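Exam prep: given the inputs below (a chain plus NDP), describe the expected output before reading on.
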Amino acid sequence: MQKRAEEFMQEVIRKNPGEAEFHQAVREVVEAVMDHYGANPKYVKARVLERMTEPERVIMFRVPWLNDKGEVMINRGYRIEMSSAIGPYKGGLRFHPTVTLGILKFLAFEQVFKNSLTTLPMGGGKGGSDFDPKGKSDNEVMKFCQSFMTELSRHIGPDTDVPAGDIGVGGREIGYMFGQYKRLRNEFTGVLTGKGLNWGGSLIRPEATGYGCVYFVQEMLKTRGEGIKGKVCIVSGSGNVAQYTVEKVNQLKGKCVTLSDSNGTIYDPEGINEEKLAYVMELKNEKRGRISEYAKKYKGTKYLAGKRPWGIKCNIAFPSATQNEINEADAKELVKNGCYAIGEGANMPTTPEGIEVFQKAKILYAPGKAANAGGVATSGLEMSQNSERLSWTKEEVEERLHNIMISIHNSCVKYGKEGKYVNYAKGANIAGFVKVAGAMIDQGLV
Ligand code: NDP
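Solution:
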């Protein structure tokens, strides 16, 4: 079967040249599902995998806008509508200078399987721009968002494609884009998720990815008779996912000792308690400052310029910044230092060589498409509330989120058991695949 997977990959690489992250994401799925796939002639006959790796639609567009000096700026906008087999396209928008077609195709591809795992009816998509919100005024961000939405609005809708946030797209950006969509279409609909609470947003959506990731790790730990209490955790990133990971770990009486951004890492051996986390949220979400400022404020904290957190001793690691942030050497160091559980809050944060290190060491490794699915799941719950024109309580949304994470964990165990060890990556890929493949076959050749 490995030969068959390799032949398949060669064709994917030939058709999508230069898109290394897309190749990486496809390879992971193809290698995991190939045995199951090959054993099912109906999949092979319908060429399900070939169709899954070809986006249903790719939209690329120019985004012109004026900066505060009145200069003309040009960015590129994208939306990848990967699969609508089980529901409307659903997935975030990323605004970051590293955004390319290949990065968004990898994210859209992952999203298809992740959304399938959530148990909710959502297809997969992703989009964004190479626009960098860092250092821009609110006015510039608004101008950009309005121009971006002017084109995107032709392609999305509450029953067609429902974008959300991702790196560089938080409440502020969703607000500006929603405002422009409403103005252009003269419709107040649930076309985006991650909305403000006063205008259709769901309680717990901001918290959902981080909380969900910690819940998933809690389920993995239970299989070894353990919990989060008393565990030392390291977290990368300091944005949405990282912040609420720390909050949930604190609630469950664990201790997080690191956060980072693209300039460096802070290491606070005392732990990032509630008060310090409130400072980080203000620093990052309102002042839009750098994490190095934390070390100036809290004595006893070290700032590791240009470094990631992986050299710090811990029990659990939560990579929550970006793709490929843990390489083989980092993975070896984590395992050597006694880390025995990984919860991927970010998408594809570990390289394939790094994943192999974790799996060979038989530690608990939760891949992003399972561990961080709580964000999109709660976006799905936001869509349900919008359709009902009702808002659920915080407790109700969080309970549903918790149950979804338990259900995703169970699916991974069902398809990922290898003797006593659970290969969560394999489990997540097969469980996600089976549902989408079945829907594709039922719906004929489209
Ligand atoms: P934010 O923009 O809120 O935060 C991103 C954080 O990661 C920032 O601290 C940022 O630092 C850091 N970061 C971004 N790019 C890099 C890079 N190239 N190198 C080092 N650090 C980097 O994004 P989110 O927290 O929303 O997203 C984080 C990850 O979680 C992403 O992989 C995203 O796809 C994934 N995810 C997010 C979901 C959500 O609901 N938001 C849902 C599922 C997955 P800096 O400020 O210096 O850029």
